[in-house]
């Protein structure tokens, strides 16, 4: 097992391949803060790489073997292929090389209290909810987020306590590298099928994750999700369950209501703390689950309930999570990170309940494999939109696959009665959307590539903002 100990300075100089990613940049930021010499490379510059440069991190745009300058350790993201020049060079020089997931797992073991938030959907939102509450308590945590949160001015907080809060992603079974003192599992769904065989493979991976937890740990599990139920038999520490109108849950969500805008409120009932009422400042039924998990995690960490109530109510979304970018012709322009059928369906459902005009959705599919393997699910996820624009697939880590195309999804949507159209580029989509926007409309761009760029084009906001 790879070890990384803050007290052992064997690795003083660390190079990150793919440093511009939200997780990698956060880890690099934390290590620079702790006094390590940090460098890294990425294919493109971003606000993450620019922020790191301001800290004194050496950033290379473009990945070449010359960037490997005698590091003690190389960390690389899952998107990096074995033929990467820097990776090859590091291995030729016998420099220790580890994946981001392995390194994060080793990093977590430096903290007495580590909180890992996992699940197919809602990780970033739930982690940021916990972050907001902890930042306004006596706890001074280190935090690694999957998005930018205004309360910490970005995606990372460098704390001075024994607490680390981080997302725990299941991609490529990375969760098997993690041994947190508190593990949250929000849900388990079919995703990353370029790696996993099927849902059973995903569930068995989460079971393996539960087996990592020791007798003193706490596992917070959503038992309304049937795929989470098999995990309960493999928890050696305390199993803390939650659910909605579910009397079998340790924490039961009841008396759900929504205001005229769509903000939920509800009671959370438990023998541990009685009954408490919570009101959210964000919309979406799915955020009831996310917020309940955050509330439970903070209460179980010892945060006073009144602090939890105040800051869960004051919480606003991460950037790119139902984020309002601006307006055009009296229509509101938003962007979201949702890239899985379940997420898109939930977000559109939440927006449609309180829309005034048309709900227009521009979707940028993410990866050929996800688009192809979940095509049927995607074709049934856009019913709440009045108009759907599908752009070119964002390939991300994958090579071109000629067997799947965005037009395939558009045709499926049309077969299902959805008003859908294909527009290859953001420029094409922007021109089309600008011609159909009317006062009162809601325009949502969604996907985990860069659909926020399209939203900014529509709203007339600088892409650099």
Task: List the topology elements.
Layout: E1 13-17, H1 22-33, E2 37-42, H2 47-55, E3 58-61, E4 73-76, H3 85-92, E5 97-99, H4 100-108, E6 113-118, H5 123-135, E7 142-149, E8 154-157, E9 163-167, E10 182-185, H6 199-212, E11 218-222, E12 238-244, E13 251-258, E14 264-270, E15 274-279, H7 286-301, H8 305-314, E16 323-328, E17 331-336, H9 341-352, E18 359-363, H10 368-373, H11 375-378, E19 387-390, H12 406-415, E20 420-422, H13 426-436, E21 442-446, H14 451-459
Helix pairs in contact: 1-2, 5-7, 5-8, 7-8, 13-14
Describe this structure in words.
- The two termini are 42 Å apart.
- Strand 19, helix 12 and strand 20 (420-422) form a beta-alpha-beta unit.
- The protein is built from 14 helices and 21 strands.
- It has 3 domains: 13-99, Rossmann fold, CATH 3.40.50; 109-314, UDP-N-acetylmuramoyl-L-alanine:D-glutamate ligase (3-Layer(aba) Sandwich), CATH 3.40.1190.10; 323-459, Protein-Tyrosine Phosphatase, Chain A (Alpha-Beta Complex), CATH 3.90.190.20.
- Helix 5 (123-135) crosses helix 7.
- The protein has helices at residues 22-33, 47-55, 85-92, 100-108, 123-135, 199-212, 286-301, 305-314, 341-352, 368-373, 375-378, 406-415, 426-436, 451-459, and strands at 13-17, 37-42, 58-61, 73-76, 97-99, 113-118, 142-149, 154-157, 163-167, 182-185, 218-222, 238-244, 251-258, 264-270, 274-279, 323-328, 331-336, 359-363, 387-390, 420-422, 442-446.
- The longest helix is centred in the middle third of the chain and has 16 residues, at 286-301.
- With 465 residues, it is an alpha/beta fold.
């Amino acid at each position: 097992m790879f070890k990384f100990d803050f007290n052992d300075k064997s690795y003083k100089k660390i190079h990150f391949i793919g440093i511009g990613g939200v997780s990698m940049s956060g880890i690099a930021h934390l290590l620079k803060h702790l006094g390590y010499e940090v460098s890294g490379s990425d294919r493109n510059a971003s606000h993450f790489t620019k922020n790191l440069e301001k800290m004194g991190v050496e950033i290379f745009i473009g990945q070449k073997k010359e960037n490997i300058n005698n590091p003690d350790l190389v960390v690389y993201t899952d998107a990096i292929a074995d033929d990467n020049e820097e990776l090859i060079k590091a291995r030729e020089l016998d420099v220790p090389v580890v994946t981001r997931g392995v390194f994060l797992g080793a990093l977590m073991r430096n903290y007495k209290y580590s909180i890992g938030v996992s699940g197919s959907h809602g990780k970033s939102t739930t982690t940021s909810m916990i972050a907001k509450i902890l930042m306004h308590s006596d706890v001074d945590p280190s935090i690694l987020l999957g998005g930018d949160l205004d309360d910490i001015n970005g995606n990372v907080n460098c704390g001075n306590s024994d607490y680390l809060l981080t997302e725990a992603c299941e991609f490529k079974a990375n969760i098997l590298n993690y041994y947190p003192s508190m593990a949250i599992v929000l849900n388990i769904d079919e995703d990353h099928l370029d790696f996993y065989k099927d849902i059973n493979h995903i569930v068995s991976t989460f079971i393996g994750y539960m087996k990592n937890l020791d007798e003193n740990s706490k596992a917070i599990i959503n038992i309304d999700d049937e795929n989470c139920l098999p995990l309960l038999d493999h928890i050696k520490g305390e199993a803390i369950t939650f659910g909605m109108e579910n009397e079998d849950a340790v924490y039961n969500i009841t008396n759900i209501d929504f205001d005229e805008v769509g903000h939920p409120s509800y009671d959370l009932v438990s023998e541990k703390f009685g009954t408490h009422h919570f009101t959210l400042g964000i919309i979406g039924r799915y955020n009831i689950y996310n917020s309940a998990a955050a509330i439970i995690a903070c209460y179980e960490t010892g945060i006073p309930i009144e602090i939890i109530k105040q800051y869960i109510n004051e919480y606003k979304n991460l950037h790119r999570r139902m984020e309002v970018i601006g307006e055009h012709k009296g229509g509101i322009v938003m962007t979201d990170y949702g890239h899985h059928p379940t997420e898109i369906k939930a977000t559109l459902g939440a927006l449609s309940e309180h829309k005034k005009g048309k709900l227009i959705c521009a979707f940028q599919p993410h990866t050929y494999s996800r688009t192809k393997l979940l095509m049927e699910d995607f074709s049934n996820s856009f019913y709440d939109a009045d108009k759907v624009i599908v752009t070119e697939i964002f390939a991300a880590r994958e090579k071109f696959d000629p067997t799947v195309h965005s037009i395939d999804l558009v045709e499926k949507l049309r077969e299902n009665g959805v008003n859908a159209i294909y527009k290859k580029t953001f420029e094409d989509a922007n021109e089309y959307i600008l011609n159909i926007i009317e006062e009162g409309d809601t325009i949502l761009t969604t996907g985990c590539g860069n659909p926020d760029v399209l939203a900014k084009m529509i709203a007339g906001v600088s892409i650099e903002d």
